Amino acid sequence: MRIASVGHAVFAATMIALGILGLIKVDFTPLWDPVPQQSATALAYLCAFISLVSGIGLIWQHTAAAAARVLLAYLLLWLLLLRVPGIFLAPNVEFWWSACKTAVMLAASWVLYSWFAGDWDRQHIGFATGDRGLRIARVLYGLALIPFGLAHFIYLQNTVVLVPGWLPWHGFWAYFTGCAFIAAGVAVVFDMYARLAAVLSAFEIGMFTLLVWVPVVAAGSKDTFQWSETIVSAALTAGAWVVADSYRGIPWLAVDKR
Fold it and tell me: Residue 62 and residue 188: Cα distance in Å, rounded?
């Protein structure tokens, strides 16, 4: 087996779970939504199959590079063909949110690909491997965090109601977490205290999963939106964890002086 980090193991397990869920539902899991209404069931099966097989492949040493390559290529195509055009053709929160969640998962896949790339990858697509590949992945992740934070301000009331009832000052937490996402995104993009920013942002996404969504579904909610957001939040936590792991060995307060 080839487990590079805890984040890697969690990410692989998450992809396996998403694949199994997609095959059981015979439908697109929330990671891939929204998709065009005319999309065939075959595409839903393809998404589930790629999630499942790539997740399993990421665990094994001899298949990790190939699995990361396939997942990277598929998520990149998904972002470029289905997400980026939607941002310009229908610039609403649904498409921005969808593009950002795809970018986070793509960033995690790119980190893993950079780690596991073999000689063929380094010779033919060297820009996507090594330190250059890691830099691209991190910038993608940082750019995705900024709209997450802006959404807290644009949709303040929707954010406030998600704050757990036992916490005081709901408005403060909505503003604070929004600012934290924006600050972390800027820090990662410009490589300023990037390790600290990546770790804290992964922690923040994880706390959203544990404090907001898990209690909701644990209470027996049958609301499709709440279940979808729980699944997406868990997947984003896994993706953010992988990106945070990519900074191991880098000083917490390092600043790129290029």
Answer: 31
Highest mean pLDDT among 54-58, 60-64, 216-220, 224-228: 54-58
SS (H, E, C) the chain: CCCCCHHHHHHHHHHHHHHHHHHHHCCCCCCCCCCCCCCCHHHHHHHHHHHHHHHHHCCCCCCHHHHHHHHHHHHHHHHHHHHHHHHHHCCCHHHHHHHHHHHHHHHHHHHHHHHHCCHHHHHHCHHHCHHHHHHHHHHHHHHHHHHHHHHHHHCHHHHHCCCCCCCCCHHHHHHHHHHHHHHHHHHHHCCECHHHHHHHHHHHHHHHHHHHHHHHHHCCCCCHHHHHHHHHHHHHHHHHHHHHHCCCCCCCCCECCC
Tell me the percentage of the chain whose pLDDT exceeds 90: 56
- Which pLDDT value is given to residue 2? 66
On the question of pLDDT at 83 being above 90, the answer is no
Q: What angle do CA 61, 71, 93 make, to 5 degrees?
A: 145
What digits encode the pLDDT tens for the residues 104-118?
Answer: 999 999 999 999 988
Helix axes 64-78, 41-57, angle to 10 degrees: 150
Mean pLDDT confidence for 44-54: 93
Distance CA 131, CA 113 (A): 11
Q: What are phi and psi of 125, to 5 degrees?
A: -135, 55
User: Phi and psi at residue 194, in whole multiples of 5°?
Assistant: -65, -35
Task: Kindly list the distances between the CA atom of residue 244 and the CA atoms of 24, 53, 77, 226, in Å, as whole numbers in the listed order.
Answer: 31, 24, 24, 26
Handedness of CA 193, 199, 200, 202 (dihedral sign): positive
